[in-house]
Amino acid sequence: YLKMKKHILVVPGDGIGQEVTAVGKKVLEKIAEKFGHEFTYDEALIGHAAIEAAGNPLPDETLEKMRASDAVLFGAVGHPKYDNDPSAKVRPEQGLLKMRKELGLYANLRPIKLFDELLSASSIKPEILRGSDILFFRELTGDIYFGEKGRENDGDTAYDIARYSTYEVERIARKAFDAAMTRGKKLMSVDKANVLETSRLWREVVQRVAKEYPEVTVEHQFVDSAAMLLIKDPRRFDVVVTANLFGDILTDEASQIAGSMGMLASASIGDGTGVYEPIHGSAHDITGMGLANPMASVLSAALLLDISFGLKEESDAIINAVDLVLKSGVRTRDIADADTPKDKILGTDATGEALLSYL
Ligand code: NAI
Ligand code: MG
Questions:
Q1: With a threshold of 0.90, does the pTM exceed it?
Q2: pLDDT at res. 84
Q3: With contact defined as beta carbons under 8 Å apart, do 219 and 241 qualify?
Q4: Following DSSP, what letter does each residue of 54-68 receive, concatenated?
Q5: Which of 280, 295, 300, 349 to probe ligand 1 with, by most ligand atoms within 8 A of CB?
């Protein structure tokens, strides 16, 4: 068995990013110990924490450390002071967007994995949910998030430009088709091609790439219809590929299939170092209270091992431990319901300890 030597950069960021990433890191340490790998770690600043320390939401030092590491375990960015001040020029999420652009992280994978134990944690009926298993590919370095933005008419008019080029659609489409080949050979491409020119290009390119994958059944859906179908019939979805903005919104919606944002991990991959992070943000409303669900970070660590290091067995061991913790009845507050006994509702650290004991 091959022992691996890898260097992991831990970037907790802001708010509950700090709390959940600490658990994700402990799980990685446990895996290294259990399987005999040698993982070394470093930490770096991003977001509000980096603005406070260096006046820059993504200091060069952080970017260099990211480039020099084998993978990044990331938390979240954000602070209430910017949410209430839209005019702030230097903002935490600029660090996140710049990181994605600089590292060429054009594909964001978001598996919507429903653990059976959480069927009742969702607001969707169990008989509709049971067996749902979706893998989103959200494009991450283009679209309206990265186009020109500004104001005109003395600030009375605002604009954001959406732009996509053929190669950008092609590379994310290929990643999604490759994944479809390893799963149910079904792919849904989501766009708004009845209205948007970027979406018409998107659909053309996906149709062209589809010819390279004759075994995959392709379905095109408009985003409004896809949003409706996700709640009506989640089992209809397998692999989904979509643009940055649509993917951002649809995956938060899809988090309700898994029961909570606190359960959903993501992998951002592309040209260089992969970045693994929960889909949730810094959650000011529960920051510092020890209530955050650490599973999204822990499952991000599992994705890191699988995708960046090719350590499938180790990755599965983490997913299995999450399953066992849930089977034991342990719940953080976000996934607890009226039937959860009080003594089974645990905080972030205690949930982490439960995970480590099962590992
Ligand atoms: P959020 O994802 O931080 O929180 C939404 C809701 O879900 C909150 O009620 C929160 O308590 C709950 N929640 C999220 N993660 C949880 C977890 N692990 N365990 C238990 N409950 C959890 O989104 P929100 O509130 O819209 O934004 C808060 C800040 O985060 C903002 O400053 C925003 O800009 C930033 N943000 C950052 C992201 C990132 O770094 N990738 C993504 C989304 C938002
Ligand atoms: Mg989002």
A1: yes
A2: 83
A3: no
A4: HS-SS-HHHHHHHHH
A5: 280
